[in-house]
Amino acid sequence: MLPVLLAVLVAGGWYFGFRAKENDRELPVYVTGAERMLAGEEIYRRGADAKPFTYPPFGAVPFVPMVPVPANWRAPVWFAVNFAILIVLARWLHGWARRGPPGERPPRMVLFWVGTLLLGGHHIASVLSNQSHDLIIALLAWLAAWGCCRGGRWGWLVSGLAAGCGAAIKATPLLFLELFALRRRWLAIVGLVVAAVGLSLLPDLLFPRGDGRSWIVAWYEINLSGLQVGGTASAEGAWNAHSYLNQSLSGALVRLFTPVVTTGAFVDEGVMITALSPGVFKVLSLLLQLGVVGTIALGVLAIARIEAGAADPVQERRTYGLAEVALIVGGMVLLSPQSSKSHFCVWIFAAAFLTDRLIKNPRDLVLWSLVVLSFLLGPMASKGIVGRDLGNKLLAIGNVTWSTWFSLLAVVRVCRVQARAHLGAAR
Fold first, then answer.
1. Count of helices and strands (H, E) across the chain
2. 267 vs 179, which has greater pLDDT?
3. How far is the C-alpha of 157 from the C-alpha of 255, rounded, in Å?
4. Dihedral angle at the C-alpha atoms of 295, 299, 301, 306, nearest 10 degrees?
5. Which of the four pLDDT bands, split at 50, 70 and 90, describes residue 234?
6. Per-residue pLDDT at 385
7. Is the distance from CB of 30 to CB of 56 less than 8 angstroms?
8. Are 176 and 143 in contact (CB under 8 A)?
9. What pLDDT is recorded for position 207?
10. How many domains does the structure of the chain reveal?
11. Distance of alpha carbon 188 from alpha carbon 324, whole angstroms
12. Cα separation of 36 and 78, whole Å?
């Protein structure tokens, strides 16, 4: 496999390096933020930069080593980093799919990978073409999944620390607190809080601002202070609330139920169903987002019942630890104020879990229906298949949002059916 991997590495580095120069993707935003942080200058320049840096301050730190790299080499180097992360994720998912008690036949791995890539692979392609840093979040989600599947005190601690590192980079992994609280994993909660707080304050120690202020305070005041609870990202010079590039739940609801205020290159004014009053819209948005939180809770509690009634809890933990992380990362992208398509690369964990379950339990028609709906709204609605115009229209409607919602329901369906099966066996 080594010659094949090297060929992909070289070809991919050249191709995506060319794409980055042509389309000015996300990588320059991160490296510019790191350069300014090293110099103690303001990194949050909303309105001044075409693509401003809006992530927590620690999000710039991983790109400090990229600053001395020549500009022409940055895109290939970044592709190599992402490629290495993909190899790690693929190797672990391959081993996870082959797990099982002694005597159980492993799934057909070709079928497993075909299904996994059909359901979740297109979002990974978005990461590579956009030169985004979302595979770093996916890597930390993998560490969280590894810890959840391992279980035990140290496994949960690793999961909490990984989630805390992700929260310091992107904030949304704070949703792992719901999982740890429902499972009463206090050590994981401590690990998450310590990692998130410690890493968020680290830039102030390593790269202090020239004006003496705190990086984390500047991030909050410039980027977060104007956001409403349950609302979508909307800030002049950074985010347009009606942009169809935002596939979060709140972003889709804004486009469907509120009139366009500011037009732009990625705004479709023809998808609004009806204009709701601000009060009614806020209630609707909060109820649906609470519905996501509640759906995650149903799945997590079902997994707890599976373990409690299992003859081999360790084996069930190895299986359903991945489901727990799939639920959380699905909630992350749905509940975030801003979720671009590349952010959904973390959905590869749900794709792997659902494919594995469909191979081993192919008779659940409800599960098949949910997965097929997710597939039709997600991968089959991409611009490469339906065309640019229709693809943009579907994005404006929120096809990626609703595809993720159906996948989330599919994961919960698997967990609840298995929990009922264990309960019936116990009786």
1. 17, 0
2. 179
3. 40
4. 160
5. low
6. 86
7. no
8. no
9. 92
10. 1
11. 14
12. 19
